[in-house]
Amino acid sequence: MSNVSVDQSPRVAKVWIALRRLDKNDDRVVALREVSIPAAAEVNKIITTTFGLNSCDVIFKLRNNRGCLIPLNSSIPANSKHMPFVLEVAKIFQHVRPEPRTVPMTVINKSMKTRLQTIDRRIQRLEELLPQIELRRNEKLSQEIECLNQKLRFLHKRMQVVDSHSWKGVLTRAPLW
């Protein structure tokens, strides 16, 4: 048997990062450092301590040598000193002016006005139909009451027919068994 040992030590990536401070309106590279990023580490904290940055009011953008964004996580691929990643530090909304996310009041007012008008029309229509609805309800109730009265009269007649027969103690016809 051969002794094969597998190294279980955590993987540490050595990455070269060039710092560009866009938050200070400086477009040139300020610093170039080698950063060791262990597996399952918080990359933001490592970068802030390495470069001495305050990360509470800035955004970090990591770009490769082609200028494409790279996600800031522990699986950043290793690179060389001659082709470093560029870390851009920018203010929040530095390049874009945010617009408020509220709907203008005129649109809200128009939509509410049309909704209120449709509800008002429906209420007016119901108020006009209210006497007819009551008449229909009364007619329906009177029809149902008349139907129940007919059924009661029929049952009453049947009960009288059953009561009028009496047992005389003899069968008038012989059973068929």
Describe the structure.
The protein is an alpha+beta fold. It has two helices and five strands. The protein has a five-stranded mixed β-sheet, with helices on one face. The protein is elongated. It starts with 11 loop residues before the first strand and ends in a 13-residue tail after the last helix. The relative contact order is 0.10.
Compose a concise summary of this entry:
39% of the residues lie in helices and 20% in strands. It is built from 2 helices and 5 strands, in the order E-E-H-E-E-E-H.
**Could you name the ranges where pLDDT drops below 50 across 5 or more consecutive residues?**
none
- Which class of secondary structure composition applies to the elements? alpha+beta
What string, H for helix and E for strand, traces the elements in order?
A: EEHEEEH
Which strand-content bin applies to the residues? 15-25%
Total number of helices: 2
What average pLDDT do the residues reach? 84
Q: What's the SSE blueprint?
A:
Elements lengths: L11 E10 L7 E10 L4 H9 L6 E6 L5 E2 L14 E7 L13 H60 L13
Parallel strand pairs: 1-5
Antiparallel strand pairs: 1-2, 3-4, 3-5
Descriptors:
177 residues, alpha+beta, 5-stranded mixed sheet, 2 helices
